[in-house]
Amino acid sequence: QVQLVESGGGLVQAGGSLRLSCAASGRTFSMSTMAWFRQAPGKEREFVATILDNGGRSAYADSVKGRFTISRDNAKNTVYLQMNSLKPEDTAVYYCAARQPFYSGLYYDERDYAYWGQGTQVTVSS
Questions:
Q1: Cβ(48)–Cβ(65) under 8 Å?
Q2: Band of the pLDDT at 27, cuts 50, 70, 90?
């Protein structure tokens, strides 16, 4: 069983930056593709970014490309989401997700992820 705990959310003005962290338990973190999703009020959860188990490749939703960066530190069992040039439409609860280990590849659908954190709120004011 993998447990994920997000942190780093908060209130920021438009144009500002935040860095989210997701700490994972268990010894299989380095073998799992990780991702960030988000859910805005009244909307479905949507894909934000994903990164391979070894950090060698990543992918982003078009809406955040060029502004957000996903990274991971397998020695610390942590995945990050650096968010720059934030916009009010980035306001959402951000969730960290992990695939089952050993199933490598980049995945964009929430149904491909087995483990989820509790979420952290990001609010961007205009």
A1: no
A2: confident
CA 86, CA 28: separation in Å to the nearest integer?
32
Q: Give residue 21's region: left, alpha or beta (phi > 0; psi -120 to 50).
A: beta
* Helices vs. strands in the chain: H and E counts, helices first: 0, 11
Encoded tokens for 6: 């997000």
Q: Quickly tell me which residue has 């268990």 as its tokens.
A: 26
pLDDT at site 65: 98
List the one residue out of 59, 112, 67 whose CA is nearest residue 90. Answer: 67
Identify the CA nearest to 35 among candidates 24, 51, 23, 19: 51
- Would you say residue 30 has pLDDT above 90? no
112 CB-contact burial (10 Å; exposed 0-12 / middle 13-18 / buried 19+): middle
Q: Could you tell me if 60 and 46 are in contact, meaning their C-beta atoms sit under 8 angstroms apart?
A: no
The SS3 call for residue 31 is helix
Residue with the two structure tokens 């979420």:
119
Contacts of 56 (CB under 8 A, 6+ apart): none
